[in-house]
Amino acid sequence: MLKRQIPNLITLGNLMCGVESVFASLATGDVRLAAIWICAGIVLDFFDGLAARLLNVTSDMGKQLDSLADVITSGVAPAFLMVGLVEQPLRGTIPMWALGLTMLPFVLMPAFAAYRLAKFNIDTRQSHSFLGLPTPANALIWVGLALAGYAIPGQAMAVALAVVALVTDVLMVSEMPMFSLKVNFKEMGWRHNSVQYLFLIGCAAIVAVSRQWYALSIIILWYIALSAITQRRHAE
Fold first, then answer.
1. 177 forms bridges with which residues in the sheet?
2. How many H-runs (helices) and E-runs (strands) does the chain carry?
């Protein structure tokens, strides 16, 4: 019985990391600390599935619990993170209706994440690859900005980030194919892993050029762009 609960305990750790992130955003306004908690939750999100497979204790309950945790850590927590990052510098500089409209894509993030995760649970097409942007990947876009200590320099940038958030919200529930990051270890050549290798080369270049935490955000945008190019080519 204890063996079967190990992956679930890791999943609950993921959920609690999301809760801690929300507390950090609300109680202290420390966006970096909030971002670190999200990162910790995403790491645990990776290990709960791995633990379930290694222990051979996968279950439908674990799958549902994992989605509930992801709604908090990769949906609710990033929303609070970005509202804290964008709203405070803009308050008092623009009308309240405009501020609310700018915040709307971030406020809607948990709803889109929840819809995606519910859809993912019943969609058998996504066992080896993805349709739409995974919720942890979306969360990492905003985590990268927060870890970099990014400050919103003006209204134009705030609106631009809101537009990006709206696009990524829609991408989470879209039918856009997204390639898997898993490398085919049985066939390590370029032919069978070309997209994954291109992605890794791009990631290395982004990190080398930027050398900042916001490279994490750019890497996820690179993942989206490469998926759009390569998966459309495969579909044709």
1. 131
2. 10, 2
Alpha-carbon gap, residue 194 to 33, rounded angstroms:
36
| Domains located in the chain, CATH noted | 2-176 (1.20.120.1760)
The per-residue pLDDT of the chain, averaged, comes to: 84
Q: What angle do CA 176, 222, 195 make, to 5 degrees?
A: 75
Where on the phi/psi map is residue 149: left (φ > 0), alpha (ψ -120 to 50), or beta? left
Say if residues 48 and 14 touch (Cβ distance below 8 Å). yes
DSSP β-bridge partners for residue 130: 178
Cα–Cα distances in angstroms (integers) from residue 65 to residues 8, 49, 117, 137, in the given order: 7, 11, 11, 19
Q: Tokens representing 32?
A: 């970096």
Rounded Cα distance between 198 and 4, Å, is: 38
Compare 122 and 6 and report the one with higher pLDDT. Answer: 6
What are the angstrom distances between the C-alpha of 93 and each of 16, 158, 206?
Answer: 35, 12, 34
Residue 235 confidence (pLDDT) above 60: no
| Residue 174 near residue 227, CB atoms below 8 Å | no
Please answer whether residues 103 and 86 qualify as being in contact, where contact means their C-beta atoms are separated by less than 8 angstroms. Answer: yes
Structure tokens at 54: 């290694």
Whether residue 42 contacts residue 97, with contact meaning beta carbons closer than 8 Å, is answered with: no
